[in-house]
Structure formats: C-alpha cells, structure tokens
Write a structure and sequence with these properties.
The chain is an alpha/beta fold. The protein is built from 20 helices and 16 strands.
Length: 461
C-alpha cells in the first residue's frame, strides 16, 4: 500500500468500533471512528475519506443517512454497509443509494478485508464498470471463451496448436461446459474460418431422419422426399462440421459416418453418385466414449477416426477461479440485452456462487445470472437473488422427509454425516423460508447466534 487509505468506521457499539479499528489498522489503513450517525456526518462534512464502513442501525440517524451524506460530499467515496439485521429490502435500498457492498454481521474477517481492498482499488462504481470491462477483455479468449484457470489455459494452447491443421478433434466434458465454444474457436483459428461452421445435434434428430440430415436425399427416395435435399456434410464443404453428442449415434449411422470419414465422400439417400467433400470434423460428447467402445455401444474404428486430437473440458467445479469472471460476463451480457444497468455482483454473491458445485456447469451459471438480472430491482446482484442452493437441496430433502431413522440400521452401516446434514439442511431451509431470507429471524427460530447460522448456511450451500 503506497499511501494510507483513510477509512471512517461508524458503529454505535464500542466493542465493534474497537475491533474494526484494530483489524483495519493492522492492514495499514488510517482509521477514524464515529460512535453514531450525527458524529459521522459531521466528520464527513469536515474531512475526506476514501471509504466509509457504516452499520445500518446507529441509534440516532441511520447508516443510509450517513451513506447519502458521504455521496453528497464526494460521489467517489466508497461506502460499505454492515448490519446484523440484513434484509433484501435494506440491502437493495443501500445499493440503490450508491453503496459499494452490503456485508451481513457476523462477517468473516478475511472476506471483509478482501471486500475493502477491492473497493479501494476500484474506487467508484463507474471506475469499477470500466475496470470490469477491461478485465473481461483481458480474460476473453478467442473472442468467445471466458476463463483463466490452468485447465482452460491448457485448452487455449491446444486450440492454437491444432487450429491451423485439418485434423479431426474429439471434445469431451460434462453437459454445459462449453464444448461448442471450443469447437468454434478451433474453426476460427483455422484457414477455414471464412467457410461454413455447421452444427449437428446428433441427439436431437430421429434415427429415421439422421442419414438424410447428414448426407441429403434424392427426390422420391422415400415417402415425404418431395424435393432433392442437400445434407449437412455437403453444406459444410471446405468448412467444419461440429457433431455434438456424437455418442448418441445409432450403430447404423456410425457405419455410414465411418465410411464418409474414411472416403471423404458419400451418396445421398436414394442417390447413385458419390459426392466428394473437404470437411473437418469436430465431435463432442458428455459420455466416456472409450468406455462406450468397450461396452460395444460405439465402433472402435470410428472412435479412432474422430479422436485424433482429444480435448477434455474441465467442469466448472474444477475451475472455480473462473466463476467471478464468468458471472461478470453474463451479468454484462444480460444487462445490455434487458436494457438494465447491472454494475456488479456483490462480493458476498460471488462467495455464495463459489461454494456451489454447479452440476449444470457454465450453462447453469449463465441461466442463474440471466434470471438474477431479470429479477433484480437494483444495479447490484445480491446473494438473496441467487436461490440455487435451497432449490437444489430441497429436492433431496423432500426425498427423506418423514423418513424414520431406525437405530437397528447401524449394524448394517449408515452415513451419519449425510443423515445429520440432511436434517440440518431441512431445518435451515424451513427457517429461511419462514423468515423470507431474514437471517436474524431465521437464527431466532433456530436458537442460533448469527455467526453460527452463517457458518451452517455456508456449510450447507
């Protein structure tokens, strides 16, 4: 820290003021303390502060009044609100008044220091918006793919290596990991970039129509063939064809595709003339195709023809460092689409997301952010907008609701941690529903301290 940033701490509890003074002074900040709102307003009117950290409830005037005064004096002053009585309405109002973030008590010391450090670097919302756009550009690869984790870096290097070649590529990974984006990036790195990129969803076309879709047909070759039709392989001539969900192909189609790959030619359905094509094939699947070969569900010779260069895309749970970047990207994308001005995601919203496993991967994250942008009534996305954990947990909890746990089962072996976690999750979920997200009320219902409730919620996300 080149210069000591000045921070005004406003809290009507002496113990909290002393604690924050010690915590922030140790980091190297110059801290000023105010015991109530009026004293804070007086200090703000007579001094300049880089950041104001204020409780909502102050005994005289509210923290929102302090926020308004700080922004009136200097719009560039960063204000972070803290409160043990956090509700969505208060958080939204604070954000709409220009607060940088809203931190619920009891807070994690490291998280609070991180939030303050980020806020002071970015300084204002407008500056943050510019910084975020610049950061996103720095981490946008091949004009499409967001992420800078080691696993993704290895993929970028592989794309640059194989892009200029004609070699067939097999991309594997769970659903929603972005396999099509990688296929497009490979195409755009090749000398075929100005030629067609044709996408075929092998799992979305009935077997009876697949051959005709692949290779076309001649008029009258079957019932309903009223005209000649060009197949997708011919449409992709001199370009790239992307065979998504290749593992869904029937055995018959696998045979016909193998011949087309080997001969680089095919006959339309009902035709007698070979059509020669120059097509690069990029395939993708969420199945373990090598195991499908062993199980006899996929032809080994076709597998080797398609799997010349393998690329394995990591699931989002293995690249959690990319979640903040991806979230910011999707928030910006859907903010523009919906003509909203979503400036950022709350740091606690990001923390919430990074604790979730995302079984639906990047696609699930995108859908979540799109929904949050659509429902957001402020320019900040708060944790309360991200209801994924309760939704995912509830389905599993309902499966055990009403179940009687028999002590005799212990002899056969039980997963005690799983049982206790399920019970805890059920009670936490119900308390949060009854309190409509008010953590203070939920803690009262469960006879827990706020710190204990926050710990348990984090553990069960």
């Amino acid at each position: 820290m080149n210069k000591k940033h000045t921070i005004l701490v406003v809290d009507d509890e002496l113990s909290m003021r002393e604690f924050l003074d010690m915590l922030l002074s140790k980091v190297g900040y110059k801290v000023t303390l105010a015991k109530n709102g009026k004293q804070a307003v007086n200090l703000i009117q007579n001094h300049s502060y880089d950041l104001v950290l204020s409780d909502i409830r102050l005994g005289d005037i509210t923290g929102l009044d302090v926020l308004k005064e700080a922004k009136k004096k200097d719009p560039d002053t960063v204000v972070i609100m803290i409160s043990a009585y956090s509700t969505t309405e208060i958080a939204v109002e604070a954000m709409n008044q220009g607060a940088y973030d809203f931190v619920p008590k009891p807070f994690d010391n490291v998280e609070l220091k991180t939030t303050i450090a980020k806020a002071l670097v970015l300084k204002t919302l407008d500056h943050e918006k510019e910084s975020r756009s610049s950061e996103l550009k720095d981490h946008l690869h091949f004009d499409r793919i967001i992420g800078n984790s080691p696993g993704m870096q290895a993929i970028y290097k592989r794309i640059e290596q194989i892009g200029p070649t004609k070699t067939n590529v097999l991309i594997t990974g769970e659903s929603g990991t972005g396999k099509e984006l990688i296929a497009r990036a490979i195409h755009e790195q090749s000398d075929r970039r100005d030629k067609p990129f044709v996408v075929v969803n092998c799992g979305g076309i009935p077997d009876t129509l697949m051959e005709s879709e692949f290779f076309g047909h001649i008029k009258g070759s079957f019932t309903g063939a009223v005209n000649n039709k060009i197949g997708l392989f011919e449409a992709a001539n001199h370009g790239t064809i992307f065979l998504d969900e290749i593992g869904e192909l029937s055995t018959m189609l696998q045979v016909k595709l193998l011949r087309a790959v080997q001969e680089t030619s095919f006959k339309p359905v009902g035709g007698t003339t070979e059509i020669k094509v120059d097509v690069r094939i990029i395939s993708a699947t969420n199945k373990k195709l090598d195991q499908e070969v062993i199980d006899g569900n996929f032809r080994e010779d076709l597998f080797f023809r398609l799997n010349v260069i393998p690329i394995k895309v990591p699931p989002l749970r293995d690249r959690k460092g990319d979640i903040e970047l991806l979230s910011a990207h999707f928030a910006e994308k859907y903010s523009k689409k919906m003509e909203k001005d979503i400036v950022k995601l709350s740091s606690y919203a990001i923390d919430f997301l990074t604790k979730y496993s995302f079984p639906g991967n990047v696609r699930e994250l995108e859908n979540l952010i799109e929904r949050s942008v659509a429902l957001s009534s402020t320019n900040i996305i708060l944790p309360e907008s991200l209801t994924i954990s309760m939704h995912k947990k509830r389905r599993w909890i309902e499966g055990i609701e009403g179940q009687r746990f028999n002590l005799e089962d212990v002899e056969q072996g039980v997963d005690l941690d799983k049982i206790l976690s399920a019970i805890e999750s059920a009670y936490l979920t119900k308390a949060m529903e009854i309190s409509k997200g008010n953590k203070k009320e939920a803690a009262d219902y469960l006879n827990l301290s706020m710190r204990s409730l926050r710990y348990r919620l984090d553990k069960n996300i």
